[in-house]
Each structure stands twice: as C-alpha cells, then as structure tokens.
Fold Phosphohydrolase.
Amino acid sequence: MRILHLSDTHLHGDPAARHYDRIDTTAALRGLLDRFAAVDGLDAIVHTGDASEDGTPESYRLLHEILDPFAAEKGAALAVVMGNHDVSVAYGETIALGDRGTTVQDRVIPLETGGRIVVLDSSVPGAGYGHLDPEQLTWLSGVLDEPAAGGTVLAIHHPPLVGATTLLRALDLDGLDELAAVLEGSDVRIVLSGHYHHEMTGAIAGIPLHVVPGITNVVDPVTAGEHEQSRAQSGASLVELGAGAPRVVTSIFPNAGDTSADPETPVYDFGPEQVAAIVDAAGR
C-alpha cells in the first residue's frame, strides 16, 4: 500500500483571501502537487484535515476541483478528514455525508489492494482541540472487528500524541486511552494525522503514528523556544506499507503560495501572551 499523505491546506472560499495576510493557500496546494507529479504507484491520497480555513462550500468545491483530477490521474482513492477549521456539516452538504448517515465525517474507504482507509472526524465545532464521541469509538470498534485483508490505515486530524508546544498541547486530542483501547490488537498498520503543521512520529497501542507537515505553513516546534513560530514552507509524505514496519519519507519545499518579499520571515511569530489568548479562545 502506497499513500501520499498531505494535510492542512486551509483553503478559502474567497480566492482573494490570504492566510495570515500572506499565503495564497490554493497556490500552495497546487505547487506542492506539482512537486509530486512524477510519483506513481499510489493507492491512496489521504488529506488529514483543515482542508478549509473558513468552512465554506466554495472552499470544499475548490479542494475537490484540485484533488479529484490528481487522484484520478494517479489511479488513487482520495480520503479527506475533517479538522478543527473545517465545518463537517458544510462538507456533508456540499460533498458527501459520512458513512453513518450523519454530518460527522467518519467513513471507510476500501482500496483495490484489499486494504482500507478509516477516517475519523475529531473536529469540535468552534474549538481547536479534538474529541471523539463514545458513539464514534463504538462505530470504530465495530469496523475493526472485521479485519481487512490488506490492513487498515486510520486517518484522524488531531494526532493521538501529546503536542510538542504549549499551544499544541492545548489543542490536542481528548481521550487517548479510550482510543488506544479500541485500537489494541486491531489490524491498523499506521495512524496518519495533521494539525500540528510539523513532522512528528510516535505510537498509540503499539501502532506507529505519523504527523505530516502542513501545506499552508510548517511550524518550528523545537528552536522557537517560548514562541509559536511557522515558516513559509509546505510538506507532504509518502507512506509505504508492506512487510515489516511502515516506511515514511517526507519532503519539505518553499511555499509556492508565499506572497512575501522575504521568504525567511516567519509566517507568524506568537509570543506567550498571544498564545494564551489563542488557548483561551480555542482550547479546552
């Protein structure tokens, strides 16, 4: 199973809008896909959330206008996960309802390899952190009770890992122990996530977990100190599943949608007071 893993496109319904008054997110996505144009043998393209910045139907139509032809050209299935900036109701009304017949975007996407992508919607309306309802865990448990011949990939926007920075820890996923209990002993080969905008690896219930960098910007989780800082870059990963451990290879490029005259200037640089204000508005 070979997967192109991307995340956090933050597309706008208004084509003139710029992310942080700087990044043309449509150009960023198109530029990144151009970088992967020569990659063949894909079974799936998995977008792990924050597809939209404003949650508008127009932004979701734009997403699929860009990704559907790319996936079709590659002969790959397309899976789109809901993130905290997304509006699941709008996506359901514009593109498709989830498998449970609700506007919660939980779904199973079978692959020709005999594997499958299981998508979980961890978004909380109006908030930045992630949460899974008991009904979602019950649904997931039922799905995993019947293993897939080629194994399962779980895709969820909020990584089931503790965040690396003060801000990301306030916006991470609730209920890690409850999710781990469902995943324990299942056929899930890897968990794919976004949200953090930087690469990160870990595990839940002994299952490898990969967080892919963002497309609209890439966060610096290590050297920024007490600040929250991101750069005008875009990244994506190739995930290969076969015998043994998953193989994940990540590339990061200059952001093709950057409109700044100085690409080295951070897209944003939040000090502790700004971080506290964001946490108060979007955290628990």
